[in-house]
Structures
1.
Amino acid sequence: MLKVIIKTLVLIILFQTLSVAREINIDKLVQQAKSSKKHLFVFLHKTDCGYCDSMIEFTLDDDAVKKMVDTKFLFVHININENDEVSYRDFKGSGKEFAQHVKYNFYPSSLFFDDVGDISYAVPGYRDEKVFNLILHYVDSKSYKKISFRKYTERADFKKKL
Amino acid sequence: MAAIKVKAKLKKGVIKVKAMAKHEMTTYNIAEKKTGDRENANFITHITGTINGKTVFDMSTSQFLSKNPIFKFKIKGDEFKKGDKLLMTFIDRKGKTGKGKGKIK
């Protein structure tokens, strides 16, 4: 009887582990984003991180931010505590290793990839919905190629986009 | 800026509420470590939520909540409609209050 219980428990744990793990191929996602003329937006976060929760529950759940992300970005989240397998160019490893590889192992971090797969803009740390919405407009308009984010926010017309 | 960020959405007769209180939540242990006096502990002790003056949420809390704690709860939305305002208030150990309101969307 004990053996049966142990076997069942092992099977349940194995099934849960397998069902949770995802394969995230950043290069494929970049191509997918490119074909739909979007930026790839990778959100790095971890379990039991207060600022990550605030970002998820308030910033990313904001109506304006949600609309912008849905229409202009291909969104992928990576929880470094989950068993995701991430591949990016020559790299292959866990979510945590990926964050270390791209040198953004601060949580939460928002990474935006351009159409050749480079990180065109990155936002380490928490941002509220108003600032984040502005960042999304900044990335979507590819303004990062011309001016800094600070200069972008100083422009008179940016308020119209909010 | 409001001391509590409030978001409320009405869907299928249920109001889903998310609130984040901005508070340091200094525990007795941290207060002792930082100041040498446990009595300097300060954390939220009570939170209430009202819609149109009616209390819909009332909770006593302790030091075991994180800094800037997030609260999520659901309320039956029969009596309320979109556009009503949810007012949330907290009181901390030192008697300071914080408020925040959000429209039901």
2.
Amino acid sequence: MTYDVVEPIFFALLTIGIVSAGAGVVLANRITTSALLMAFSFLNVAGMFVLLGAETVAAFQVLIYVGAITVLILYGVMFTPQQPRAYGLFFQKQTPLAAIVVVPIAIFVALFAFSFRDAPEAGAKGHDLEPLATSVFRDFGFPFEVASVLLLAAMIGAIVLVKRDEE
Amino acid sequence: MSVSLGAFVAVSAVLFFIGTAGVLVRRNAIVILMCVELMLNAANLALVAFSRRSASVDERGSVFVVFIFVIAAAEVAVGLAIVLAAYRNRPTVDVDEIQRMKG
């Protein structure tokens, strides 16, 4: 069995995982379930990255999204009270108006995705670490430093926001 | 046969729509943050797909994804801090009831 036969099967499985877990995040009544389904959806997106041959990005996805961001959100869930209130918000009187706005956008997006059906494909597989590192540290060196300052500012801001007043 | 670029773009669009629906429908501030993360992930998927499957492979799409990782981490930290600060003032995380930040 060659790689070309396995690829569509894995793509279908990952698509089912992403879409069902994403819908579960929106629909689940318990917020902990939402958080864990979100982690599962991120894991499936990482699988998509591997399928595209971007293993380094997939590793970052697992480390940052599945690891750090999910834990951070679970801490937020832990510190706040949860009252289940999810349903009944779907069927309101704006539904026809929303359908009028959304359906043309959905048709446009579907046509846009369909237009890449016959696109020429280079199909590079793997070995993305070296060009990625070269691009980040040579072409995007200054934005890289700005990103580090942004992270420092976000860290200080988060500490200041949640700090209790001493007096 | 390998999977075409359009299929990845379609999955990305569906995930983005799901995230948008969650932001609009749910009223819990933490669930809204999760749905924003889903939308960012959809954008990441489209960027990587275009970067890896274009006629000449260009790593700049993956570089943007790395920067989006950084910004998403900062966004979640600050967003959760705002939610916790608002919760300390008024014991709720329901965005319908947190109206003090309205301009």
